[in-house]
UniProtKB/TrEMBL annotation:
Keywords: Glycosidase, Hydrolase, Signal. The keyword Cell inner membrane does not apply. This is alpha-L-fucosidase. It comes from Ruminococcus hominis. Alpha-L-fucosidase is responsible for hydrolyzing the alpha-1,6-linked fucose joined to the reducing-end N-acetylglucosamine of the carbohydrate moieties of glycoproteins. The keyword Hydrolase applies. Its EC number is 3.2.1.51.
Length: 429
């Protein structure tokens, strides 16, 4: 991985925690963003949602404030998902929020809200488009018309689609000021890299937005992170790997074993787009632990919400995010700017680390003493509960009453240590 990527992604790696927002026409049928494909709907059938779309409660400031309260540092909104509907005022299509009852450019209001609240702003853009007449249909396993014989002999001009797609990306990178992140989705089978004219696309993007961080999905697909993990990343390799709904066992490394930036994208229930019958939400505790797991493996987590058709984030999600926010209020120091520790993962939880400080996330309350294997007593400066700053006294019962599962262990003059330390005793709290 090159230096340029490292520098560009500095804020992103420090931020560690972001909010993903999947929102569009699919919030009306309310069974996830793949509904058009899953139900094999034609563009005409799906269009009824375009006619209905009327997000009377749309107030992105509320979304962004909630993200901030949860301790998130950046927010990414679906400017366009696979259905082709644009939340922005594209000059290249009529299929956009400006032509719905909303009557306005919803991306603009979102971008303004992020800036107002001082959060980094990102846009998700689908490189797949089920609405565009020149996107492959019959036989394409992702497309709603994959089984529709009516499209079997259809002639399409894929270059015309690419002009459209590139044109829309140009609109996004030129009309909304400085963007911090672009999230392209997704490559599959042989539809990857130059099939999207990715070199040309990225050259254009970088011309207007030299510092924008880009995901790896113009090239990478599934488990294959693409050339970002090699010594010679292509121009469109992206800046970070984007595992979906799975935390890689050892984080993500390049071929030399060097950690590279990555971001877990994850849903709170089991859908990205609003789904009114999916109440299988993860608990705040589980989500915090997933975040900690990502950080301990050198990655980020972008956690999704799927606002409903009126523009409200489901109340379950709001409640969960507030709980996560309570934890972050007390323990954020163990997340922001933190990363992989040299110490082995302890039995009782996880370590994150920053500038010679070890953050011990204690999941399992010890019976008595808490062993800090690999940390010699002489090297310990002080040990403190992160939540209230009180010292952790050795030999005393572990204080779980504080709901503080993070302690920090700060090293004195010499923060450097190696593991294992064969001649020195481990610390026992
Ligand atoms: O935008 C979100 C998803 O819609 C999109 N990426 C995230 C960020 C995405 N998720 N999975 N995929 C794209 C790959 C395709 C998965 C599929 Fe399926 C499996 C398509 C058909 C079978 C998932 C399950 C969607 C429909 C059923």
């Amino acid at each position: 991985m090159n230096q340029e990527i490292r520098e560009r992604t500095k804020w992103f790696m420090d931020a560690r925690f972001g909010m993903f927002i999947h929102w569009g026409l699919y919030s009306i049928p309310a069974c996830g963003e793949w509904v058009m494909s899953e139900k094999e709907m034609t563009v005409e059938e799906y269009r009824t949602y375009f006619e209905q779309f009327d997000p009377v409660d749309y107030d992105p400031k509320k979304w962004v404030r909630l993200a901030k309260e949860a301790g998130m540092k950046y927010v990414v909104l679906t400017a366009k998902h696979h259905d082709g509907f644009c939340l922005f005022d594209s000059k290249l299509t009529d299929y956009k929020s400006t032509n719905t009852k909303a009557g306005r450019d919803l991306v603009r209001e979102f971008v303004d809200a992020c800036r107002e609240e001082d959060l980094k702003v990102g846009l998700y853009f689908s490189i797949i488009d089920w609405k565009h007449p020149d996107f492959p249909k019959y036989g394409d396993r992702q497309h709603p018309m994959r089984n529709n014989e009516a499209y079997k002999e259809e002639k399409i001009d894929f270059d015309r689609y690419l002009d459209y797609m590139h044109g829309q990306v140009k609109e996004l990178v030129t009309n909304y000021g400085k963007l911090d992140l672009l999230w392209f989705d997704f490559s599959y089978d042989d539809m990857t890299g130059e099939k999207w004219k990715a070199t040309e696309l990225i050259k254009m993007v970088r011309h207007y937005q030299p510092d924008v961080i880009i995901d790896n999905r113009l090239e990478g697909a599934g488990d294959n992170h693409g050339s970002i993990a090699t010594d010679n990343p292509l121009i469109y390799s992206g800046d970070f790997a984007s595992p979906e709904q799975i935390i890689p066992p050892k984080g993500v490394c390049d071929i030399n074993g060097e950690p590279i930036p990555w971001e877990l994208c994850a849903t709170m229930n089991n859908h990205w787009g609003y789904c009114n019958f999916d109440h299988q939400y993860k608990t705040p505790e589980m989500l915090v632990r997933k975040l900690v797991e990502c950080v301990s493996k050198g990655g980020n987590m972008i956690l999704n919400v799927g606002p409903d058709a009126k523009g409200n984030i489901p109340k379950e999600s709001v409640e969960i995010l507030k709980e996560v926010g309570n934890w972050m209020d007390k323990n954020k120091e163990s997340i922001y700017g933190c990363g992989i520790s040299d110490l082995e993962k302890p039995d009782w939880g996880r370590y994150t680390e920053k500038d010679g400080v070890i953050y011990a996330h204690v999941y399992e309350t010890p019976l008595g003493a808490l062993p800090l294997y690999g940390i010699s007593p002489e090297k310990l400066d002080r040990i403190t509960y992160l939540a209230d700053g009180s010292e952790v006294k050795r030999g005393e019962a572990w204080n779980t009453a504080l709901y503080t599962d993070v302690a920090f262990v700060s090293f004195g003059d010499d923060p450097v240590f190696t593991y294992p330390l064969p001649d020195e005793k481990d610390t026992v709290l």
